[in-house]
Amino acid sequence: MKNFEELNLSNELLKALHAMNFTEMTKIQEEAIPVILEDNDVIGQSQTGTGKTAAFGIPAVESADGSKRETQVLILAPTRELATQIAEVINQLARFKRGVRAVAIYGGDSMERQIKDLKKGSQIVIGTPGRIMDHLRRSTLKLGSLKTVILDEADEMLNMGFEEDIQTILKDIDYPHQTLLFSATMPRKILEITQKYQTAPKHIKIKAETLTVKNIEQVYYETKAKMKTELLRRILKLEQPNSAVIFCNTKKKADELLEVLKEDDVNVDVLHGDIRQSTRERIMKKFKAGKINILIATDVAARGIDVDNLDLVINYDLPQEQEYYVHRIGRTGRNGKSGKAISFVVGKELRNLKEIERYAKTKIKALKAPTVTDIAKITQKERYDKIKSVIGSQEFSDDTTVTDLFYDGYSYEEIAHALYAMLFCKSPKVEKEKYHSDENGMVKLFLTVGKRDRIAVKDIIGAITSQTTISGKDIGKVILLDSYSFVDIPEEFVEEVMEGMQGKQIKGRNVKFEIAEK
């Protein structure tokens, strides 16, 4: 990769790039920046996370004249979050260039504040099409001195219904100017825009093999729809990320997961289209500052998520479009850091995952879902460390209950076990010593339903697999008798099956699961 020093940039811009720790160019920057600096129209095809904001932001700042207050560069973006993100990057790039200023304008924000910002002078304006149109109608934004117009994530703007607004804005700029268009995909409607509003554009396309970052570990878990939320809880316990984004396809599911994870005392919040803009900005600020660890988001609301040290991306729902997978996982593993992307796959979605693999030219590894026993080991270690830290800090209560119990004949070990159970054990657990596995690692369970209840083997297997992460092929022998049954379960799944089937029915019949006596 080439160094930014090799470009014929101003000292002020090079100083800003150095302060931002930008040294080597990404592929899109290396190919696009020199072409843009030569005043060519450009079609840039690249994904999120490839550095395209700087690819058009650096030439924008370089061309801006700080001695003139008029708007010289207009950037259209699909969402408020992305507009804000672009403005932040450009203002960082312009920090040493006297007089050059970028302003973000978008719906849901105070029109009066935006008018004040525009009156102060803003050489670079970034905004959503609808709000740009509002300012043009009011004449609070004038484009008579415009040199460059940039469409970022053009495909997403069309998906969101901004085609008419975009056409109106571009049509009104009827004097010579440079037009840059960046998009992850090139549907027919975008090609129509390029043909209509660009002059001999240079097409820069990042090859498919660079779509996904090599230092992102990509894995998936096959699961059942009913078990996705339970699997999510286990994955968060297993991975323990400092920062993670969980992607859902609907606002309803995002809200449901928010409530579930809050009950688990997870430091979590949600972003989707129904959240007020001021609230969304506050949430993003807290997430970037590390005050929120987990963010649940839909694709459109997540467009402005740009966090340097994102550990983990979880596709709770597989994206409906293949390119969205790349958009999502590209938010981790940035700037040479490692990251991880986990996808949940239900039934026939496995076919969709294989299509994503082919599209992104990547390999997504299958993993076995963590069991209750796996999570219990992690929980036990956490509790051990917590108790150890309290002992080390000597922060003991002045209450004499423990001493009184000791004088009543209870040992300190018995008292410690009782207090531990009171503190951590919220529901009765199956004790390990109460059951034994056979030579194949299987434990036999007793069920209080049988043939007389019109129960078949497939009903027992179906009930267990629908309420737990265990698959049908892992379940062992099922013995169906008149009034009761037996089923062999792998030792690591016993606790999960006992808990998961507690209070459940099989074909409308109440059923109780017990460890079978020898």
What can you see in these coordinates?
This protein is of the alpha/beta class. The protein has four domains: 4-206, P-loop containing nucleotide triphosphate hydrolases (Rossmann fold, 3-Layer(aba) Sandwich); 216-370, Rossmann fold (3-Layer(aba) Sandwich), CATH 3.40.50.300; 373-426, no CATH class; 433-515, Alpha-Beta Plaits (2-Layer Sandwich). Helices cover 40% and strands 17% of the residues. The chain has 19 helices and 20 strands. It has helices at 11-19, 27-37, 52-63, 80-93, 111-120, 129-138, 154-159, 163-172, 188-197, 228-239, 251-263, 277-288, 322-329, 349-360, 372-393, 401-407, 412-424, 457-467, 494-500; strands spanning 42-45, 73-76, 102-105, 124-127, 148-151, 178-183, 202-205, 216-223, 244-247, 268-271, 294-297, 312-315, 339-346, 365-367, 442-447, 478-480, 485-490, 505-506, 509-510, 513-515. It has a seven-stranded parallel sheet, sandwiched between helices. Strands 10-11-9-12-13-8-14 form a seven-stranded parallel sheet, sandwiched between helices. The chain starts with 10 loop residues before the first helix and ends with a strand.
